[in-house]
Amino acid sequence: MDGSTLPAVAEELLREIKKAFQESSHGTDTFSSRLKFIFGPSAVPALDLVDQRSVTRVVAPSGRTLYQVLGSSGKLYTCYSSCHFCTCPAFGFSVLQKSESLLCKHILAVYLSQAMGACQELSVSEEQLTNILLTEEEDEG
């Protein structure tokens, strides 16, 4: 997680969750009220996505990484934790245009999955990673 993309309070909460899971792998119940307070309506659906193991970390041999999140609608969204971005419409509208939310449920699910060690892992070739990126561009355009 890049410390410059989220408010310090959000970064600290994600660090606490990661530490708690490393020490005892207990549930997020301890953190749910703070997650809701900081991340609003994205918190509960993001936790559901984590519980369903919907987050996949996609890594190419060069080390380039992106995340794919299977949304509740069955659509696959691409998230970039390095620049705090998701390809879903909610991110574009609620986060970028209206500034109503810090992030969408998909990118929050990525951060929570990282903290809890709950990401699926997928190794792909550079060509496959490029194809994923190009497909996203075509979908957007």
Automatic annotation (TrEMBL):
Cellular component GO terms, alphabetical: Shu complex
Source organism superkingdom: Eukaryota
Signal sequence bounds: none
Gene Ontology process terms (BP): double-strand break repair via homologous recombination
MF-aspect GO terms: zinc ion binding
Family matches, as PROSITE patterns: ZF_SWIM
Pfam family, one: SWIM
InterPro entries: Znf_SWIM
Protein name: ZSWM7 protein
